[in-house]
Each structure stands twice: as structure tokens, then as C-alpha cells.
């Protein structure tokens, strides 16, 4: 029996925390997801930081950069993930508490009409600024841009993924709006409560990860993922510098009991699209590995910023779309083992004969917008927009946002797949999704 990856990390972290160089501020532990982000950067100095951005359009002149900077510092002062620095010490990822880490800047946009910026100069400027982010830059960046002829300006709220998950986004939009409104008021005292709340939340998550790395979990993932194989050309998979495209469609919101079928329906729809694109155009006969983030704070944990997500893996065999009931049952079984660290899952799959290193064929992210407060600045609610051209961690990525409607976006690696193939795959995705959701509603 091999030792738990989480237990080994905790032993190294505790040794570091007792070392003289940990004083005076001490060191804080990291979740499994946070550690993966940092180890990736540490191994490849050229790697860009994983960034979670939101983009909001405001009437021009709404946002005061100086006031926004004060609001951002006020917010960051209350969250250890935004007032410290992520580091790898002696090969061990940690968070070192410190001062608020924020940037607020106005980004110069180019001319209004350029063929290489078909989506407008403001979007091009923000996209370029985010791509150029330094790995040792601040955890929270607020970037503002407007083209010469734009009546609106775009605000990018970008966070280091190690400091941010879905619940964190709601804390940030709500917290920024409140801090912006409170400008001029004396900030409340910030003691060690935030640090201890963060520590308790992360230690609770680590306990859950350790408990989910037992024999039963390994047996589950070995059975589920034993047929996976490494995708052809995995070494040249999508990267930060590659050109990406995006397609989007809005579907009616799903209501009532049918809401419970939305995510398994999306999984099957993404599988359909991935097989449509992959391995020569028809997906071949390979079982694809689709990843999706899942998780939340441990029970009773304080609402702290950080990344408490795990990446779960869904095996997608070739063939026609599956029935929703069978999809849902398999998905719920996977969720029973959702805390098993990703590296443990890969190890379990390989123990069952999978020739798979953990590379993903596609990604699915899902956000319930009812759980995220809007960004409101001085009574003006920002209109959320989405930017194409962002780097992808897989050849195919699908994002779904469920609010007043169901917004589905497919992004793909243009260097691997032409526009026509992506459009065909997206049409297949939407057809599968509509079929499943129609059956769920019925």
C-alpha cells in the first residue's frame, strides 16, 4: 500500500512550518488543487499562471481607478490568499502571509478598426495584458480598457486560480462592490481571524482529501478509468501561446426537477463534441478523458478565498449518446469520491492498466449564476461579457453558465481543428444537450 499523497504533503509542510525561516508570519498550507497549480509553475518557469477572469462592461467613466484600488486593497486585506505570496519552499507549496497583493491599471487600447482585432480594441488589449501576466505578479488584478469610439469600458477582474474557485468569485464581486461603496470610511480592524479561518478551511479540505485516498476510492477510480489511454500527440496539446476560437449559444433556463439533470446532460454533450473533433474527425474508438472541476468548502468552513476544487475525470467511450438516467447514476457515484486527489486518481487508473498520464481531452466548467452576486459599483451593475481567445488547458473546453438562461460556450484549439469542424462539433453538442434536457423536462 502506497502512502497518501496528502499525508506526505502534510508531513513536509509541518516540518517547514516549524523551521526558523517560517517566522515571523508563519506559513499556511495549500489544498491539492492549489499545489498542482504551483508545482506546474515551479517546474516550468515559462508557464503562465492559471488565471480566472471575469469581464464586465460599464458605461464609460463609471469606474474610478484610484477608488477601485482602495477597494481592492480593502478586500485583499481580509483574505490571506490575496495578502500573501504563494511559494514553493524545498519542493513544498505553501502560502506565506504578507501584504495585500493587488494591481489596478488602465490598459491602453489600440485603434478602433483593425483586422487583427475583430472583436474590438478593448477586448484585444485586456486579452493581451492577461496573457502577459508574470508568474510572480499579484493575486488580484483589475484592468480597465476602452477603445477610442467605445461608449462602454471593460473591467477585467482576474485572480490567480490558486486563490480562486467558483465560490471565491461570488466573494470577490460582492466584496469589491461593498468596499467600493464604503470608500472613505475607516476600515475595520483586521486581526488574525482571517488567517486562522483560512488555515482551518484548508486543513479541513486536506483531511477530506486524505480520507478520500483509501482503498475503496482507488478501486472506484481504477474501475472507472482503467480503459483510458494517452491521446495521440499529447505532448503538443493546446498551450498558452496557441490560437483559440469560441462559439456560443443561449438556451432556455432549466427549471424544476430537470435542473438535476443539467450537469450529466452537459457531460454527455461534451463527450459527443470531443469525439466529433478528436482522432481524425470521428473520435476513433478511444475512451476520452473529460475533466471537470467540482467541490466546495468543507462543512462549517468560513467563506475564505482559495481554491477548494478538485478535477474529476469522466470517461467518455465512443458511440451514441447515453441515456440520462444511466449518466446521472454514474456521475453520482463519482461524486461520492470527489475528494480523491487528482494524482491519486491517475495512479489508480494506471494500476488498472490505463496507459494514461493524466492528460485531458476536454474540459467542462459549470457555474450557477444564482450563487454569484453581480458586480455593482456606485449603483451601476456591470454587464458580464465573455472574451474569446483565452488559453486552453485542453484541446476542447466547454463552459456553461446557468442564470436567466443557459449560456453554453465551446472553445477550441485552432491549430488542431478548423473552424468548420468546431462548428459541426458544437452543433452535435447542442443537439445532444437539447435531447437530454427535453427528456428531463418531460
Q: Could you give the count of β-strands?
A: 15
Q: Number of helical segments?
A: 11
CA-atom Rg in angstroms: 22 Å
- Helix/strand class: alpha+beta
Proportion of helical residues: 25-40%
Major pleated sheet: 6 strands, mixed
Overall average residue pLDDT:
88
Ends: how far apart? 48 Å
Q: Which spans have pLDDT < 50 for at least 5 consecutive residues?
A: 235-240
Strand content: 15-25%
Descriptive overview:
Helix content is 35%, strand content 21%. The chain is built from eleven helices and 15 strands. Helix 8 (262-277) packs across helix 9 (324-335).
Short description:
The protein is an alpha+beta fold and 442 residues long.
Descriptors:
five-stranded mixed sheet; six-stranded mixed sheet; alpha+beta; 442 residues; 15 strands; 35% helix; globular; 11 helices; single chain
Q: What is the strand and helix layout of this fold?
A:
Elements: H1 5-17, H2 32-43, E1 51-59, H3 65-76, E2 84-89, E3 92-97, E4 102-106, H4 121-131, E5 140-145, E6 152-160, H5 166-181, H6 193-211, H7 215-225, E7 244-252, H8 262-277, E8 288-294, E9 310-316, H9 324-335, H10 342-351, E10 362-368, E11 376-377, E12 380-381, E13 383-385, E14 396-402, E15 405-413, H11 419-441
Parallel strand pairs: 4-5, 8-10, 10-14
Antiparallel strand pairs: 1-6, 1-13, 2-3, 5-6, 7-15, 8-9, 11-12, 14-15
